[in-house]
Structures are given as structure tokens and as C-alpha cells.
Design a protein that fits this description.
Elements: H1 3-8, H2 11-15, H3 23-37, H4 46-62, H5 65-79, H6 102-105, H7 118-126, H8 132-137, E1 145-151, H9 153-158, E2 160-171, E3 187-188, E4 197-202, E5 205-210, E6 219-220, E7 233-244, E8 253-256, E9 272-278, E10 285-287, E11 290-297, H10 299-304, E12 306-312, E13 315-321, E14 330-333, E15 348-354, H11 362-374, H12 382-390
Parallel strand pairs: 1-9, 11-15
Antiparallel strand pairs: 2-7, 3-6, 4-5, 8-9, 10-11, 12-13, 14-15
Helix pairs in contact: 3-4, 5-7
GO molecular function: ATP binding; heat shock protein binding; unfolded protein binding; zinc ion binding
Cofactor: Zn(2+)
Subunit structure: Homodimer.
């Protein structure tokens, strides 16, 4: 593979992400492809093996902030001149104007390659032999896991403890994560000397790629664990107890430390994030730390005043309605809302709404007509009409 091939490779396209993708998006894309294309999952499939090699190569560059920056700068440098075959830059024989010599690009002031020119930039990107063993075998933290749980409205307000069944990767109980059959241990890969990388020189470049013998792990397992097939992890169904704190909001995440995927090479376990979905209540609503309730009332109750029995989540309370209260008025009942983290509790907001009967018996209708005649002089729209006349 030539230097031109390396720089013209689109690592972002290999992983199916955009060039401005975040580190988390790159990681998720790689992990998804790695599961699909791993040689153990595709025995004898040379196409999948080649793709696995390509995405591993791409992830090795894009997952490292420094290497990604150098890779982006190198691509911009060459792409800005129309690529390798034309425009401002051109490799010998590539159609570039003036037959630009690649050697000049990697030297400064006639010195040797690596003396501070672009060779330093690209050398740092592709020559990963030094420190490769530490990179391949260093402890890696396990991935975080996210799952969803649905709770009742009352449980979200008052808090609850619920059980959650989760099927996820966990450290193999038989080999304790080593991947080797009990009584045996993995050995250092002789091909890459445990680095997980094989480095080849190509002109001015030194290229590193995952070792095919150990698949980039730096270790060989001669006798794989029969339970996890050498992976060191296995899928298990476990039951967790999740404490839902009082006042949890719909969509809020609860973190369970150390309950995610197991780490690699002795690294710490990731975390589990439980996203809470709150089922709506048939009567109550929520506005921040306050609960809301619409209370049907009659016109006489608002006109003459009354005392209402109002439901709450923990019983009933009485609320006094003053005479002449308009429909739509909101009455506040302190201490009957959501308990805050500072120990205070929100209120219950009761909206009074006149309920108009769809049908009335003759006696009620006659009484209502008599009231309408008695109050004919009172026009509830008089103030509105006056404002319209002034406008």
C-alpha cells in the first residue's frame, strides 16, 4: 500500500460517520460494526475479515484525538491542492504539475525525513509501533449501558423500588475474564510480540495494522474457555433492584455505578443508566414541582361560594371557594405537590371549571330561565363591548 493510498483512505466512510462526528459516535459506530464483522462471528468469510481489518484500522486513527487531528490535517493539505494526482501537489508519475518530489515534502532545508516537516506529522499518525503493546494491553474501562423502565405516576412522585431484568455482557464466571480454559493462561503473540500491531515500512511511511494472528489483542489463547469461547465475557440475565427517587421526571436517567459492561484487561466496569418513563395519571398532571388538577364545579357553587372536597395523591383535603369566584380560577393547596431535593414540597394547583349539564329536567330548566330573567340587567359582556367601542 502506497502513501497515497493511506492518505486518500476515508476512515470516516469506513465507520459510516461524518467527518465532524463526536468521539462517542465514532465509538458506537465501531463497536456495532466490530460485532457484526468479527472473524469469530463470520468463520471463513474473507470479506467480513477484510472489513473488520479496515474498520479496526480506521478506529485506531479516529479514536485517538492526536492521530485524528493529524489525519484530518493531512487530508486537508492534499485535498486542498486537488488530491495527489493534480493541482498544486502531485506524486511523480501522477500527473502533478512539475512532477513534485514527495521527498521534498518530508524534509526541511535539505535535512532528513522526520526533521520537523510533514514527515513528523504523518509519521506520528501511522507509525504506532512504539508504545503499541501498552496500547493494546492496557486496562480498558467497560462500556456504559442504557436501558428503559416504566413506572406509574404515583411511583414517580413518591418514589419506589422496582426490579429490573437485564440481559447484558458480564465477566465470564468460569475464566474470570481471561478467555482461557481454567488451568491455562493466554500467551504472548509471537508475531506482534504482544503489541497487537504489525508495522510495515513503505517508502517514507511506517504503517501499523492489527495483527491478524491475534486479531489485535496481543495474546493467543490455545485453549479457549468453553463457556465464553475465549471472549472473557458472556451474556447473562440478571435481576437488579433500582431505587426510583421521589419526584423523578419523565425521561430522567438514573446512574447505577459499576453495573455496565465489564472492563478489558482488568479495567473497571462501566455504568448502567436507567431512563425512566412515567405513565400519565388519569386525574393529576404535573408542572415542575407542582401537581395539577381540574375540578368540575357548578355555577351556584362559584356564585354563592362553597367548600369542596379535593382529592390528592395521599387522601382528600377541603378547599374553600369564596362567593363570586370566576370559572378558571386556580386555587393553591400548599404541601400537596412533589417533594423537592431540598426537602420542601410543591403545591397542588386546583383549576375550577364550571360543568355545564348536557340536559336538564323541566324543573331545573324553569328555575334557570327565571334566574336569567331576574338577572337580565346584568350584561357580562358590557366591559368587553366598551373596550371594543374605544378601540
Amino acid at each position: 500500500m502506497s502513501a497515497r493510498d493511506w492518505i486518500e483512505k476515508d476512515f470516516y466512510r469506513e465507520l459510516g460517520v461524518s467527518s465532524d462526528a463526536s468521539a462517542d459516535e465514532i465509538k458506537k459506530a465501531y463497536r456495532k460494526l466490530a460485532r457484526e464483522l468479527h472473524p469469530d462471528a463470520n468463520p471463513g468469510n474473507t470479506t467480513a475479515e477484510a472489513r473488520f481489518k479496515s474498520i479496526s484500522e480506521a478506529y485506531g486513527v479516529l479514536s485517538d484525538p492526536d492521530k485524528r487531528k493529524q489525519y484530518d490535517e493531512a487530508r486537508r493539505l492534499f485535498a486542498g491542492g486537488g488530491g495527489f494526482g493534480g493541482g498544486q501537489f502531485g506524486f511523480p508519475g501522477g500527473g502533478g504539475a512539475g512532477g513534485f518530489d514527495l521527498g521534498d515534502l518530508f524534509t526541511r532545508g535539505g535535512g532528513t525525513a522526520g526533521a520537523g516537516g510533514l514527515g513528523d506529522l504523518l509519521g506520528g499518525l501511522f507509525n504506532r509501533g512504539r508504545g503499541g503493546a501498552a496500547s493494546a494491553n492496557r486496562p480498558r474501562r467497560g462500556e456504559d449501558v442504557e436501558t428503559d423502565i416504566r413506572v406509574d405516576f404515583t411511583e414517580a412522585i413518591q418514589g419506589a423500588t422496582v426490579s429490573l431484568q437485564l440481559s447484558s455482557p458480564a465477566t465470564c464466571d468460569l475464566c474470570h475474564g481471561s478467555g482461557a480454559k481454567p488451568g491455562t493462561t493466554p500467551r504472548t503473540c509471537p508475531t506482534c510480540s504482544g503489541s497487537g500491531l504489525v508495522t510495515r515500512s513503505q517508502g517514507a511511511f511506517a504503517f501499523s495494522e492489527p495483527c491478524q494472528d491475534c486479531r489485535g489483542t496481543g495474546r493467543l489463547i490455545d485453549q479457549p474457555c468453553p463457556q465464553c469461547a475465549g471472549e472473557g465475557v458472556s451474556t447473562k440475565t440478571r435481576t437488579l433492584t433500582v431505587r426510583i427517587p421521589p419526584g423523578v421526571d419523565d425521561g430522567q436517567r438514573i446512574r447505577l455505578a459499576g453495573q455496565g459492561e465489564p472492563g478489558r484487561n482488568g479495567g473497571p466496569t462501566g455504568d448502567l443508566f436507567v431512563r425512566v418513563h412515567v405513565a400519565p395519571h388519569p386525574v393529576f398532571g404535573r408542572s415542575g414541582n407542582d401537581l395539577t388538577l381540574t375540578m368540575p364545579v357548578t355555577f351556584p357553587e362559584l356564585a354563592l361560594g362553597t367548600t369542596l372536597s379535593v382529592p390528592t395523591l395521599d387522601g382528600k383535603v377541603t378547599v374553600k371557594v369564596p362567593a363570586g369566584t370566576p370559572s378558571g380560577r386556580v386555587l393553591r393547596v400548599p404541601g400537596k405537590g412533589v417533594k423537592r431535593r431540598d426537602g420542601q414540597t410543591g403545591a397542588l394547583l386546583v383549576t375550577l371549571q364550571v360543568a355545564v349539564p348536557a340536559r336538564m329536567d323541566p324543573e331545573a330548566e324553569a328555575a334557570l330561565r327565571a334566574y336569567a330573567e331576574a338577572s337580565a340587567e346584568h350584561d357580562p359582556r358590557a366591559e368587553l363591548n366598551g373596550l371594543l367601542d374605544q378601540a
